[in-house]
Amino acid sequence: KKPDPCTFVIFGVTGDLTHRLVIPSLYNLAATNLLPDSFCVVGVARNGMSNDNLRESLMKGLRQFATRNVDEAIARKLLECVTCVEADPKDPASFDKMRDQINKLEAARKTGGNRLFYLATPPNAFAPISRELGRTGLLAEENGAWRRLVVEKPFGTDLASAKALNAELLKIVDEHQIYRIDHYLGKETVQNILVLRFANGMFEPIWNRNHIDHIQITVDEKLGVGHRGSFYDATGALRDMVPNHLFQLLSLVAMEPPARFDAYTVRSEKAEVLAAVQTQSEEEALKNSVRGQYVGGKIGDTKIEDYRKTEDVKPGSTTETYAAIKLTIDNWRWAGVPFYLRTGKALGIKRTEVAIKFKQAPFSMFSCTAVDRLSQNYLIISIEPTEGITLQFNTKVPGPTISIDGVEMKFRYKDYFKAEPSTGYETLIYDCMIGDNILFQRADSVEAGWQAVQPFLDAWKKAGAKGLENYKAGSEGPAEADELLTRDGRHWRKLG
Ligand code: BG6
C-alpha cells in the first residue's frame, strides 16, 4: 500500500543521520514503489544552502551509504523533490517564513497538507523545534490532514528529563502524532520475537517461571567510541543502549500476549511489563551491576587506544563503556526469574542476542554420561551476526553406550528468505507515513524504561571511579561481569 501524499520535513538535513540513514531509506522505499505518488521533501538547515548544493550532498551520501545499487533515474527523481529551507528555532521569524514556504510547496506538489516532521537533530533541539512548530500551527491537525512528529533517540538522559520532554511535546501534539524512534524495532528479528511467541502454539505454554531459569540479553559491539567522544562521554553504555534498545528486546520477550495486534494493545502490554521491572535501591543496584571502561588493545588487526585517550573524552573520565545489570520483573509470569543484560564497546566479537535458558530436566537417570557436555537447553534469538533462532538440546551419541551430547537446531533467515539488504529504517519511515505507530515508543514505556535504570545511574554517579573496572579492548569485557552470574550459580552463554 502506498502512503498518503505528504510533505516529509527533515530537521538536521545536513547531518550524518540524514545522509547515512534517512535518505538511503527513502531511496529504498522509492525503489520498491512505496513512496506516496505526491511527495515532497523539505530539508531544514540552520544555515541555508541552494537546492542544488543540498541535493548534491545528499546524492553523495546516497552513493556512499546506499544498501543496493543506486539507479540514477530513481535517485534523481527522489532528490528533485528536495527543497532546502533555512530555519532556526532561535529565530521565530524563520519558522513563520518556513510555514509560508511549506504551504506554497504543498499547493504545488498536491500533498494534501499531510506533514511529517522528522527531527534528525541533536536531542537538545527536539523541544525548541517542536515549540516553534506548535507556535506556527504547522503541527495542528486540520481539514482532515495529518501532522506527525518523529523524534530520534536519545529521548531524555534520565527519568526527569524524559518526563519533561514528554510533557513538553504533549503540550504541542497528541500522543498519536508522536513517533519516538528506536531503530531496534526496525530489525526483522526483533519484530519476529512477537511472531515466534504468538504465532506458534508450543513456546508460550513454557514461557514462564515454571520452565525458564533465566534470560540473558547481550549486545556486544566491536567498535570503540570513535569520533563520538563528546556524545558518548556524557552518555555511557547504560544510557546509550539499555533503556532503549535492550529494553525493546526485554519487553518483547517478557510481555503478556496482546489480545489484538494493534498499536494501542501491543504498546500497552510492553509498557505494562516495563513498569513491572523492579525498581532497585541504589544499594541493590550497585550489587546487581558491573560497569567497565576499555583500555587499549587489539580487535583483529585494528589497534584501539584507551577510551580515555579518545578524541573529546575527558582524560579522567569515569564514563562506562560496558554495563551489565541484573533485573527482576515483579509479576506472576516472571517472579524469581533473573534477567541479565550486558552491553559494551570495543569487545572481541559483535553479537546481539536474547538467550532464554530453560530449567534442566528435574532428574537425570543418565548419571554415567559425559554430563559436562550436556547442552544447556537454550533458545537463542540471534540478531547479530546472523539473524535466526537456535534451539539447543541433548541427544544420544550413536554407539553401544548411553552417552549424551548437546546439539543445535538452527533456523537462519538467509536460508529461507531473500531480502534486499536494507538500512533497517525503511519499515519505520514507511510506518510513520501510513500512520502505524506500533513500532514506536509510547511515553509511558519510555518513562518506565528510565525508571528501571535510574537507580543504576544514580548509584554509579555517586560511586565515581570506585567500582569502574577496566577491560582490554578486544576482550569479552570485565571479568567481574562473570561474577554477576556465577554467584547465582549461572554463567553467560559462551559462543562455540
Ligand atoms: C545506537 C547507539 O543507538 O545503537 C550506538 O547510539 C550503537 O552507540 C548502536 O553502536 C547499535 O546499533 P546496532 O543496530 O548496530 O546494534
UniProtKB/TrEMBL annotation:
Residues 471-496 are annotated as: Disordered. Catalyzes the oxidation of glucose 6-phosphate to 6-phosphogluconolactone. It catalyses: D-glucose 6-phosphate + NADP(+) = 6-phospho-D-glucono-1,5-lactone + NADPH + H(+). Residues 490-496 have a biased composition (Basic residues). One of its GO terms (biological process) is glucose metabolic process. Residues 194-493 form the Glucose-6-phosphate dehydrogenase C-terminal domain. NADP(+) binds at residues 46, 153. The active site is at 245 (proton acceptor). One of its GO terms (cellular component) is cytosol. Pathway: Carbohydrate degradation; pentose phosphate pathway; D-ribulose 5-phosphate from D-glucose 6-phosphate (oxidative stage): step 1/3. GO terms for molecular function: glucose-6-phosphate dehydrogenase activity; NADP binding. Substrate binds at residues 183, 187, 221, 240, 345, 350. SUPFAM superfamilies: Glyceraldehyde-3-phosphate dehydrogenase-like, C-terminal domain, NAD(P)-binding Rossmann-fold domains. It holds the Pfam family G6PD_N. Belongs to the glucose-6-phosphate dehydrogenase family. Keywords: Carbohydrate metabolism, Glucose metabolism, NADP, Oxidoreductase. It is an enzyme of class 1 (oxidoreductase). PROSITE patterns: G6P_DEHYDROGENASE (PS00069). Residues 9-192 form the Glucose-6-phosphate dehydrogenase NAD-binding domain. This is Glucose-6-phosphate 1-dehydrogenase. Its EC number is 1.1.1.49. The gene is zwf.
